[in-house]
Every structure is written in structure tokens, then in C-alpha cells.
Amino acid sequence: NNYLRVLADQENLRQRTRREIEHTAQFAIQKFARDLLNTADILNLALNSVPKEALENAEKENPHLHNLYTGVKMTEQDLLKTLKNYGVEQINPLGEKFDPNVHEAMFQSPVEGKEEGTIFTVQKIGYKLNGRVIRSPQG
């Protein structure tokens, strides 16, 4: 009977150790990924700083602006694709109900046509690493 208990304990220990190793491997890049999120934010700010009107005819009127915008957009897309390959995904809660477990509220304001508690603006996009929130979206 004692022998069977020791065998069961050993098997439980092996399984728990295996789970911990898998968990550690999944979230080993968390700090590195969090540091890269600032770069993604900066690229997004750069893209949003260019007015839509300036982009409409930029290819003919201002090819330097068009090329710069295209390069920054491609860099942002490549960075997000690389992050996604390692399990990092964006959380953009625009139009969703506020969830205090996931979202970070910056302010609250009544908006006509929107249900109370609905997120109507996102100041910073959030990110998840393998399903775990590593940065809450701010809105």
C-alpha cells in the first residue's frame, strides 16, 4: 500500500513538473514582449499622426510622405505579425462592454447612442500573451 502511494506521488510530481515547465516556456518572453509593445505604440502613433486628407493624393503630390507612411505601416504590420507568431495578440475593445478584469478605464463620460459602460475610445491598445493579459487596453 505504501509502495503504491509513493508511486502515485511520484507520478503526480512528474505531471506537476511537466506543467510548470510548459507554463514557464509559454511565458518566458513576457518581459521582452512587454518592452516591444512600446515600439508598436510608437509606430501606431506615427501612422495616426498623418491626416487622411494628406494621404489621399500623397502618392502623386508628395511621394516622400507616401513612401515613409508605407514603410512605417509595413514595419508595424511585420512587428505585429512577429508578436502574433510568439503568442502575443492585440486587444482592441472599441464598442465592447467595459470589463474591469481586462480593461483599464481612463475616464467615464455619457455618450448619446451608446449604452452605459460601452467603450467609445481606446487610447492604448492592450495585448495578451497566450491568453494572459500582459497590458490592459486603456480607454
TrEMBL record:
Record InterPro entries: GrpE, GrpE_CC, GrpE_head
Keywords: Chaperone
Subcellular location: Mitochondrion matrix
Entry GO CC: PAM complex, Tim23 associated import motor
GO aspect biological process, one term: protein folding
GO molecular function, one term: unfolded protein binding
Main location, first listed in the record: mitochondrion
PANTHER family reported in the protein's UniProt record: GRPE PROTEIN (PTHR21237), GRPE PROTEIN HOMOLOG, MITOCHONDRIAL (PTHR21237:SF23)
UniProt family annotation: Belongs to the GrpE family.
Name the UniProt record assigns to this protein: GrpE protein homolog, mitochondrial
Native species: Ambispora leptoticha
